[in-house]
Amino acid sequence: MTETSDPVTLNRISYLPVPDAAQVREGVSKLWGKAEKNIGFVPNVFRAQAVNGEQFLAWWNYFNLLLNKEGYLTNAERELVAVVVSGVNRCLYCAVSHGAALREFLGDPQKADALAVNWRHAHLTERERTLAEYAEKLTLHPAEVTAADLDPLRAVGLDDHQIMELVQVIAMFNMTNRVSSALGFVPNAEYHTQGR
């Protein structure tokens, strides 16, 4: 199947039709307005997932809790994990959007870009490398993960709360990557220049 030059296809952000503001439930439109106010645009993932508004809001509440609230891991560590998982899964939307967030949290665009493409080529601390290794194993080989895989995490200082949050962030991105990739979500242009 070849790509079409139809402008509707070229400007699409999802394989499914995306609802406009008049078609979404109140909670979704409020979230869109909050995003516009806080970051200057509405993330395409917010628009594309609004097809099922109640499910989108449930996803967002958990995602927001894991990624945007004070947690047990640092913001940079959570975004590092998000980028590693998204890179392993080759999820365009999440690798680009969370690569932008990682650039801002690290203040190091080169390191963030290397992480998004192949984390093994990034200059990482021992703790960062351990997080990346665990994220990759749980993403690619979940049936092979054992209690022994927690030992390297403990060796770099992670406690039980941090390990639980790490697992939850990895799981969240595996799910989100699959939704984004399955429906062809396109990252907003703003992400490409953010944090550079």
Brief description of this entry?
By secondary structure, the protein is mainly alpha-helical.
Secondary-structure arrangement, i.e. CATH architecture of the domain at 75-191? Up-down Bundle
Query: What are the secondary-structure elements, in order, as H or E?
Result: HHHHHHHHHH
DSSP helical segment count: 10
Radius of gyration equals: 17 Å
Strand content: under 5%
Structural class: mainly alpha
Distance, first to last CA: 36 Å
Polypeptide structure, described:
The structure is a single chain. The chain is mostly helical. The chain has a domain at 75-191: AhpD-like. Helices cover 62% and strands 0% of the residues. It is built from ten helices and no strands. The chain has helices at 7-10, 26-39, 44-49, 53-67, 75-88, 92-106, 109-118, 126-140, 151-155, 160-182. The longest helix is centred in the last third of the chain and has 23 residues, at 160-182. The radius of gyration is 17 Å and the shape is globular. The protein starts with 6 loop residues before the first helix and ends in a 14-residue tail after the last helix. 31% of the residues are buried. Residues 55-136 form the Carboxymuconolactone decarboxylase-like domain. GO terms for molecular function: peroxiredoxin activity. Pfam families: CMD.
